[in-house]
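Sorry, can you check?
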Amino acid sequence: MTVLAYNKRANFDYEITDKYEAGLVLAGHEVKSVKTGHISLKGAYVTIKGRESGKVELYLTNSHIPKYSRATTVLDYDPERSRKLLLHKSEVNHLIGKKKEQGLTLVPIKIYTKHNLLKLEFGVGRGKKKYDKRDDIKKKDVERDMKTATKRAQYSK
């Protein structure tokens, strides 16, 4: 498993409770572009479409995949178009129920390869408040200080 893109803001801005894995529907030149590491999940989110028609589908929205540099001319290519996610129907129904709860969001976490296929890991998260983010920063600082102190104590012996 090779991680190709990671959403650094996902764990900072959201409290992730459940994680899911989904396949992505991409064009050939988009797959090559992603496998070379040219993708951005910054500001991306997962949307649910088609509730009225009965055929419910999930889409990765606002992710940026630039055109593959060695691809032949691709006309009318939109690098930020919505890309369909491949999930089982039971998972989709479960996610719809989770989404109806107030304040929950579907947040992409990372894109990776699994057996030569591209997979998206996304989570169900609740947005953090500003004071929660400050608490996380304080915890990280204290842990870092403790690690450096123990390293210094080991080397001073």
